[in-house]
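Shipment paperwork, digital attachment
Item: protein structure file
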Amino acid sequence: MDKIKYDFSVETLGECKVRSPIELSHEHGDFRATYVKDTSFVRNLVNVFEDDKGDANDMSNLMEKAGPRENIYFNPAHVTAGICTCGGLCPGLNDVIRAVVRCLWNRYGVRRIRGIRFGYKGFFTEQGFNTVDLNPDNVDTIHKIGGSFLGTSRGGGDRVTDIVDSIERLNINVMFIIGGDGTQRGALDIANEIDRRGLKIAVVGIPKTVDNDLQFIDRSFGFETAVQKATQAINSCHMEAHSQINGIGLVKLMGRESGFIATAAAIASHEANFCLIPEVPFDMDGPNGFLAHLQERLEKRHHAVIVVAEGAGQELLTTTNQTDASGNKKLADIGIFLRDKIMEYFANKSFHINLKYIDPSYEVRASVTTANDSIYCERLGNNAVHAAMAGKTKIVIGLVHDKYVHIPITMATLKRNTVDPESSLWRDCLDATLQPVYMVNNINTVTEYQRKTAEEANLKAIARLEKVNGMGKK
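Attachment content:
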């Protein structure tokens, strides 16, 4: 299998010659925050293993620290900033918008901030969506409500020429794009088209993925809120199940390719007995299949709670191979499938059950953030502004080892972050649920599934790198 070579080098628009209006310190000890230098880095790989020769001390392993620079690229008086939110809803969108606006206005003195309505589609003149002038007054309380103050939509990122035409027409020279994996790939295409035209426009992404599936970063904003809300749903399902004869609570959570929400919520709730995620295959039938283990649980404890991620068990269902406007594969509904299979299985055995099915996905997406997520969004937004004003481009802001860093979009979108079935996280989930390590009748099924999944992810990453490198040579 080919090894992927990472490169965390950050592109800039040019030399920073403008003195920052933020008055900070040059050294520690005077009770003032300090500027961040471009020579400050965070290591990607920090774990130490036996016989390890040490991590690389170059840009294959070093990520540039985020934060305010002493000298910046843009004169704040000449800046027109744009902000848009794309893709599905996620807790924290309004918190990020608010942070970006307030940092631009209060810290840098930028007075022209345009909100692009309804995602990338807001750039298209035929849609008829006017921009929104943003300032601290009209964003001051938006963190108290869910959703997106600017609205959002899927798709449209492939119309790169039209988007850059609109950015030019609006005189935007600092563009903030809040969105997930597909959105950030679109942001990179936009930045590359800006380069091709010889324009000096910074494109900075703030990664939004409630599934926590962005590579390298500790966690994505909204994830903690999603786990909190999902845990409440699991607890409600447990009370229903526990109060019935052979009660079964079935909760379907978000997680297309990564089962982080389901895993974390199963651990946090202390009530889940089974956690089914995309990364771990399972059989429905047979002596070591899921249904046999569910029956065993009911015979012993007379109730059970099942947590399933939306992308789990897709190999058991019939799919259409269709995609949505964001390019995501449309999933078959594992929740309905499990509900019907469980009902059928126990009916055939004349085994009385009482099953309750909950899908809180859209309630979770539209939630107001937890306090900790709100803090995280604030700091992501602030660091995005510092990066853009310093002329950084084609990057996203991420938290790595509890430090805020600049990550090139090319690296952040190479592969999805997934739950490692051999990790301590999944081990702790198994300890919390007490489910079997394997629910398959043939162990070779598991090893082949993991090998194939890893190989496909690696090939996709290599293809993306080749595409990006090819575009760079044009």
